[in-house]
Amino acid sequence: MSSVAPSVSRSLPAIESSAPRARAARTLRDWIADGTLPAGQPLPREDELARQIGVSRGTLRSALTMLDEENLFRSNGGRLRIVAPRETASQPAGGLLRDAVAVLTHESRPLEEQHEEGWLGFIVQGALQAAHDAHLHALTLHPNTLNGTALEHLALASPLGVVVSDLMRSGGDVLGWANRLQASRLRVVVYGSAPELGGFDRVASDHAAGCYELTRFLLQAGRRAPLMLWPAVHADAHWFAPRLEGHRRAMREAGLEPLQPVFVPSMPNPQEEGDFEARFQVSTRLLAGHLIEHLPHVDALLCATDRDLFGAAAACRLFGKVPGQDVLLAGYDNYWMECAELAFEPVVPAATVDKRNRLLGRALIDLLLERAKNELPASPQLRLIAPQMVVPA
Predict the structure, then answer these.
(1) What does the pLDDT look like over 343-362, one tens digit per residue?
(2) Which of 70, 85, 126, 136 suits a disulfide with 358, CB 3.0-4.6 Å?
(3) Based on the structure, what is the number of domains in the chain?
(4) Euclidean distance between CA atoms 368 and 190, whole angstroms
(5) How far, in Å, CA of 269 to CA of 83, rounded?
(6) 50, 57 in Cβ contact below 8 A?
(7) Contact (CB, 8 A) for 347 and 321
(8) Residues 250-253: contacts with CB within 8 Å, 24+ apart?
(9) Are 228 and 318 members of one domain?
(10) What does the pLDDT read at residue 98?
């Protein structure tokens, strides 16, 4: 009996994979699961299957041998492989990963519950909790420990999908690894809205909405000249453009012309070793130098993140401006009460924005499950999660 190759309408990823055997195995599993390769029917000829998947015939044979061990096929007594009925297929050792989500993250340990959710680590915790609630296994992988061999093993294990919580952080070629995993036909969902992530399903905070609401709050408080004050290192960050867009929209709706943002270069890193208070004083004077020409007519400052508003407040005091009265200070990320800078400048932000990081993590799992159930269009999806403005008492 002759076999006819299935008509496969889905397109394979254009990115070349470093693990073609894993990609071939994953493709065959998917085609068996969705009925493209029907149970009880013989497999098409090897050369035809290899052509459709885009691998060599030798690679295809290696993948088929691996799937033989999973009892996905049965023999007709000859050389033909017949797709086994689903109830007779079994998972090999380690097959429990088929119902697992791998979370790629730099976070080394869970955050304590008393921490404010502005810390990015809560994205990971939200994802892990959502996986647990969906009755899925979950494991965390640290990017610094991954290499080509580990990636191939992960692809061969064929988990339900991979979640990348902090892809744009330093520490290895995380973007390259995510591309390679996706090219192996693994489902990959990432956090962030940077343009280079456009090939993935993504979840991101709606930064435009966050800064829009923050600016409206300042306008409703009677401020007419709010200024965006940003470390220059964040000028190209993917969240800056939408925040600027939200700020300008609120200003123009109020009939006001937005001021040009001020970028401050070479801000000291608060995470470095050494005298923390000395670094804070350096930051204060650096900010003062960039604010001196603006403070006569500025009545509010929008800082890039909560940590930046303490130095800005101290800089205002150097010019006789009282933070919270003469100049309102708005932060972002809602973790100001846990910043060590409070010891030197006990200021409370007029308002800040909570990105709802735990909810972002849950949304990553939701998006992955929708992709696994074929409930999404073929094109990569971007899901924006509305943040929440917080006005401290």
Answers:
(1) 999 999 999 999 999 999 99
(2) 126
(3) 3
(4) 10
(5) 58
(6) yes
(7) no
(8) 250/211, 250/212, 250/213, 250/215, 250/216, 250/219, 251/215, 251/219, 251/226
(9) yes
(10) 76
Quickly state the pLDDT bin for 119 (edges 50, 70, 90): confident
CA dist., res. 358 & res. 41, Å (int) = 46
Q: What one-character-per-residue DSSP string does 131-154 give? A: HHHTT-EEEEE-GGG--HHHHHHH
**55 and 41 inside one domain:** yes
Residue type, 343: A
Pair (293, 339) in one structural domain? yes
**Eight-state DSSP code of residue 168:** T
Residues 175 and 124 grouped into a single domain = yes
Assess if residue 347 is contained within a domain: yes
- Which CATH number characterizes residue 42's domain? 1.10.10.10
Name the residue with higher pLDDT: 219 or 142: 219
* Backbone CA torsion sign across 327, 330, 336, 337: positive
- Residue % of the chain over a pLDDT of 90: 48
Task: Tell me if 115 sits within 8 A of 339, measured CB to CB.
Answer: no
Q: Which domain holds residue 30?
A: 20-88
Please determine, for residue 16, whether its predicted confidence score (pLDDT) is greater than 60: no
Residue 94 pLDDT grade (very low, low, confident, very high; cuts 50, 70, 90): very low
Report the SS3 class of residue 317.
helix
Residues 175 and 220 in one domain: no
CATH classification at residue 171: 3.40.50.2300
For the chain, the first-to-last Cα distance in angstroms comes to: 78
Question: Contact at 8 Å (CB) between 51 and 76?
Answer: no
Q: What is the pLDDT of residue 96?
A: 63
Instruction: Give the span between the Cα atoms of 89 and 7, in whole angstroms.
Output: 23
